[in-house]
User: Fold these one by one.
Assistant:
Number 1:
Amino acid sequence: MISITAPLYLAFALFIIGMIGVLVRRNVLIMLMSVELMLNGANVALIAFSRLWGNLDGQVFAMFVIAVAAAEAAVGLAIVVSLFRSRASADVDQLTVLRD
Amino acid sequence: MEHTLLWIPLFPLFGALFNLLLGGLIARTFGARIGKEVAHLVAIGAVAFSCFFVFSLVLQPGHGLGFMHLLQTGDLREIIPGPGRSGHRIVDQVYPWIVSGDTIVYFELLLDNLSGLMCMIITGVGLLIHIFSVGYMAKDEGYHRYFAYLNLFMASMLILVLGKSLVLTFVGWEGVGLCSYLLIGFWFTDEAKASAGRKAFITNRIGDFGVVLGMLILFAAVNSLDYDAIRGACASISDTPLLADETKIFGITAATAATLCIFIGCAGKSAQIPLYVWLPDAMAGPTPVSALIHAATMVTAGVYLCVRLNFLFALAPLTMAIIALIGGITAFFAATIAITQNDIKKVLAYSTVSQLGYMFLAVGMGAWASAMFHVMTHAFFKACLFLGSGAVIEACHHNQDIRTMGGLRKRMGVTAVTFLISCLAISGVPFFSGFFSKDEILLGAYTHASAWSPGLNYAGYLLGMAAALCTALYMFRLYFLTFEGKWRGDSHTWEHYVKEHWIMSLPLVVLAVLATFGGFLGYPHALPGHEQLPHMLDAWLEPVVEVSHAFGGEYAIGLRHQLDGSPMWFADPSGHHVTAAAEYTFMGISVAVALLGIGLAYVLYSRGPSKAAADWAKRFGPLHALSKGKYFVDELYQTFIFTPLKALSKVLWLGVDNALINDLGVHGVAGTVGITGSAVRSWHNGSLRRYLATLVFGFLVVLGAVYFNPRVSQVGPNVLNSSDPGGLRPELGGVPVDWGRFWYRNADPPSNRSRSQASPRPGVVRPEDPTRAPRVAPGSASATGAR
């Protein structure tokens, strides 16, 4: 039987990789993908705890997260596409029109 | 009909609502003439209905109060035959009005002998004044508004009188104050009249504050504001909570403190020193309003409240002494002011203040029935006088200065005769109503003694006598200057005077008849024919005042011979009443004083303002100036109260409101936010990655604060009930979590929180142990997911 720590380490690694991706990359598309990584890290943690408790709530919750992430990806990609069309770039450092 | 009494105030209330909501619409739709017809028909009809109700309830033959049939069928809620001769009461419990814990205040109306008497005066005189108003206000723009206010006043006054608890009475009390304000400032486009309304309202509010305080003190002591409950608490001197040490306030008994506070309210409402200043200014309102509100009904509310709470006042000898003294002084001083006034309504206003002083003199002496007797007779003759003055003002094209009148008897005979009758009544000429009531008060003042200050009754008697002399003088000065002698105004007004109209004369005649014969309700014991004509009012009010009479003699107020222990020469050895000889003596003095005043007025004013009058004024120069200037009380208030108050208000306005709240508070907060915002706006540079980095940093800080803060980490195990397995489902392979290890970084947690570590939870089976059935103990209800 796998102990609780192994999936948690996996979840932690996924989350941190995703977070670093969001922080260091400048391309919006890559940032979105990194956010998906972070969400999946959270999902792995949820499922691990669900198994630990013997309670299916966590798995159900993970399903919800996946559904919401799909919706979020759809919306986010649409935004990225329209951004790229208007600016011919997906570099977040240049997207500063909301500053003032 | 279930709620018999509720209809009494409800009819005028509906009338008021009708005229307020629909009056203007009707006038616009069907024209002004029909609008006025509808307005006064509704208003008068409403008052006539409640008048009919009151009279039929009170005057049922054979019974003191109440319909005989309703009594037997039990439709009336509660009938208690009192021990007195006519002590029936009708109680109408409408609904529980305020429910708060154990305290329930009912919306409950009470018609007993006292409120019945008041209701008869209010609805009877009120009906006549409504009728008079049709003539007086005929040409006014705000006709329906006027009748709406008048009806609203009737409703409030009836609630005041009928209320069975102080709370409900206070509702009516505030209601009549509001209506008084609305009607004084009825012609609100005139700044002086509008400010007279405000003055009345604010002065009354000062008094009302006293009533509220008194109510709170009473409630703290008795735990109820129902009149019957207070009466019960006052029933025995030895163990009443109102005299107990626990309820004392600054060493004063609760009874004294409460009555003093309530008397402040009565002084405001009933225009006694020092709060009388609003009443003379209240004459700015239409004259029928002065007759109804500022003479006959509203201003007697204070007297009514004192008599209603007579059992309470009888427990407070200090208050009684103060009331008697203030009443006597008010009676005298207001009468002296009235002598020199030239405005016909101002004379009557000060006369009202003076007569109210008499009533409070009677209250302070414990002569409750005499006070109510004077309330009644005063309502008759003063309403008649005011309505008469209204007719005069109408005839003289709204001129009110008696120096430019005279000889009006030839022009308006009915008004002159009724005015004369009322003057005779108020002056105390024998067998007119005022003679009986005023004489009873003066006699009571002489024979009753105060436990607080035994000599006080003599002072009260002398003040009352002096006031009686002034009363006869100023009333006949008014009569002579207005109706006798030669016309002193311009000839145009004399030629084109407004003729008397029957609708204005009819109420005058009825009131004059009442002013003439009303006194026979309180026919003195000494006079011949007493056997056939007993003192009805005494018998009528006996059930109301019997509690205070029961111990009044020994505690607060009593006949002097009882108090001193030695029979006085005027005391009838048989008991309660003074001897006939003494009564005749006092009557003789009263009559002599009244005739002296009338004679003086005749000499000085019967042919208009004579040279002798001017000489007298010169001889008493300073006194005359004082009286003419109304003792400069308004100016004193202006200097010592109004000006400092204004200065204080300015300090509060500029210092507290402007500087502290506005500048420092509101603008200060906004300014701080603005400055902080402009300081930190450089962070807001639009770089998404910077924002994200800040977010992550903040998240790490919070996480660290939680994890490294020992206080926060201790909360965890505490909130978890060790017997609560939470969402754990062992049957699905769940493993119990070792919360001690989870929360504590050190391996050895406090023993009291590590019970789950030391021993496995009951009913929870570790999954490594397949030999035991993975079941949850029965009784652990939350095991199946109470989460």
Number 2:
Amino acid sequence: MKTSSLWRMMPLLAPTQLLLISVIVIPSIYVVWLSFHASTYGQAATFVGIENYIRVLGDPGFHSALWNTVVLVVVAVHLELLIALGMALLFNSGLWGRRFLLVAVLAPYAVSEVVAVAMWRFLFDQGVGPITVLLNALGLPALEWSYEPSHAMIMIAVLTIWMHLPFTFVILYAARLALPSDLYEAARIDGATRLQSFRRVTMPLLGPAILVALLFRYIFAFRMFSEVWLLTGGGPARTTEVVAVYLYQEAFTYSAFGPASATAWIMVAVSMLLASGYILLLRRQVKNAA
Amino acid sequence: MRLERFLVNAGKTLAVVMILLWSLFPIIFIISSSFKPGREIFAVPPQWLFAPTFDHYVTLWQRWSIFFQGLFNSTIVTIGAASIAVIASTCAGYVYSRTSSRFLNASLVFLIAVRLIPPIVVTLPLFPIVNNLGLADTHFVLSVLYATFFVSLGTVLMRTFIDQIPRELDEAASMDGATMPVILWKVITPLAAPGILAVAVFVVVFAWNEFLFAFIFTSTRAKTAPLVISEMIGSIEGVDWGVLFAASTVQLLPVLLFVMAMNRYLVAGLTSGATKG
Amino acid sequence: MSYETAFRLNRRTFLGGAVSGLALMAAGPAFAQGKTLQVLSHRVHQTSLGEGDADMLAAWKAENNADVMFTTLDSNPLMDRLFREASLAQTDFSVGYMVDNRPTSENATLFEDLRAYQDADPIEDFDDIAPGLVQGMTIDGRLIGIPVRTATQGLFYNEELLADAGFDGPAKTLEELVEQCVAISAKGRATGMILASDLAVFPVMFARAFGGDYISQDFTLLPDPAAMEKALTVLADMFSRGALPRSYATNKGEELLTWMQQGRAAYSVLPFARMGQLADPALTEYAGKIKVTAFPGSETLAADTAMSSVVEAWAMTIPANAVDKELAWSYIKEVSSRKNTLGMALNGNGPARVSTFLDPELTSKNDFAHIESEVLANARGAFPPFGEAARAQQLFLEEVQLTVLGRKSPADAVAAIQSRIQPLLPA
């Protein structure tokens, strides 16, 4: 279409762009300014250069928060992907009551983080939690998530997987459904076993969908806040603190706006890094579509 | 051969049972516990047969009236956010579907890239800005925030859906002298209804459940239900678990039923949103 | 999967929904209408004023045609929230409860100077309010809070659980306390002691039992490092021997009361004032069996040194950006009256008025009033206020938790506390 019609369409584009610019872009730029200043309640900002960045990057508390975040992202997201892939293939292999099962699998998507935390905290309560009681009755060790940092991390990972599995599953399931069945027919005629057709046909064709699901989940898991804040508060002894919790504490508990802003921009940088692959992919698609 | 078939079926059944347990057990447990008398919540082993009681709901109503105000606030904020997001993304989605230029492609990338900024990053500067505008603790500010974090996905979704509507329809209307807003309103909107629903499902679920923004931007007037529940978790004294479960059930059920009813739109949205952009 | 248009949304319905949504949004703020005083506090401040029929503010509410709405949070989140609210252009909270170790020269400017209010419309018998507490709320010459609650820490114990393990009375020394706790846990019916890991109060008490401290009133960090090391050693020992629950690192201040009410722990450290909730048969089946005494010092503590307990004071402030300051002052004045101070004390609030401690109505009702006033005589704050106090407390607790869980030696933790917190102290 011609440029003139593009201009006529501007009013239609404006609400979306205005929202994004005023709510996300401008505040983010203000965060850059804040990150080069020291300020707190009742005190004017003074320019300190890159001191805030040096302070955050040199803080052992930040290192451990970053490390915990990376561990959670790597472990939880990949586990989630494996489970989702298994489920997608299971659903595709023909199941009774698939429609109902799909609704059941989607259910956790409707649950708020707050309620999910209340649920899992109670189920795993170290005194009275039903799962703890069950594990003990079976002679199995229960999760001591308030004592063992690794157990606390497992709790957080379980909660994250529970809440986001529907998302990953749906993407993979839809992608699997879209695969043409004649390919499998052909593979079967060629005498391929189930395993072979999975490795040679399913995996390569599902590749893009898996990549998309992974990138999405990397980006979203990296900003994880509520699960950790409400479940462990970063404890025991700050061993499960993640980057977003670190940022919150700097900003709203210690009222140190400079270091908090520096942390914020470090988060943005890491997210962008994670996403650059995704954006490249997207650009290619936009080009193809054009 | 028969044995193999039996094993495969047994395995599948087991897997299905595990999936159901994993997805539904925590939810059913919370809901059923909210109807259990206080002490039976902690009974070992859990009681599946019990005389249901509404005690916890009565207590919730009497002692936590603030929770119901939270539900009211959540409702307003959710409707507001869904309206803003749907209108903005339908308009933008239409433009992206019907026109293309270098500028538009770039702005589409911008649309997605902006979304990569973690929400917690903007809380810090938005907090004083929202204040100085006198918008702190209003339903409006939460609605706008929630809508903003979904217009990117919403626009991409709407573009995908509108792409499926034949251009000939717009062109015919255009020949008849209809202006663009009229075309959008009379021709596109009715046909893109599934897309609109898909966008709405996402925004509704997000706005109804969101915690972080509500935690930071509201204090008394616009406090949403999840925030009240988090305060309940914090101030629980002993046997109050029942009240917490009752509140959780009330907060959870509407959106759970909504998601179940709308599952096809959710799935449609997730697939086209994630794979197409 | 086919998601074809099986469903066609009626445009008018949709528009109707959107419009009514926006209309509701506009009407929204009107929801909390009428004359309502918003108060930001800890739950205990609300309960001590009485609820329902026992509401001590009933007459004041009727007279002012006002209602009081409390938003209650646990101690640390409450302070985060109060300062955030006070930094806004305007806040709905006209009264905020502040703990005495948080005001600093910087943040005190966010609150009204109440001296002017006091001069114009004085609180009844103001000089009766403990002068030390008033001093603590006077920052750079400005009185920013009216003291309303003292929380002096005492040692609570459950007689029945003690007797169960063969002890006929509470421990007289710290060493004895540890042994009793270990024995009670070993018995299996309850845990020896429950402490919270999110407040500095508890490790500070243990350090003081050995004559040490965390940060002294003149800002000396760890005035006696050896004492802190001994304190951490004792705590870690208690944990490893099961005298503290395995969930120690996530136990929050609010939970202590629950554990005691349910008989899940035999000992805890709580403000004396909490006895109200531990002696009420409606709240605990151990009512009457839970007693309180002074927290014991170590047997190594020199005979002439008294164990100094932790006292925390709360004051009512008016944020400078509050909407209804007149009503706020009227509330503060009402709550601070002699009558209401006594009423709150009877509901289990540590009074801020000196005379209330001696009131016969109170001393006849609770037999521990004399113990409390003795402990209070030697008590001081957990740490003095300074700008980075919140961060320092967090670092301190991190080191304490690591030590208690056995992940760090007490000596290393003491060294870390010194090197990490020293830079945060005021010069």
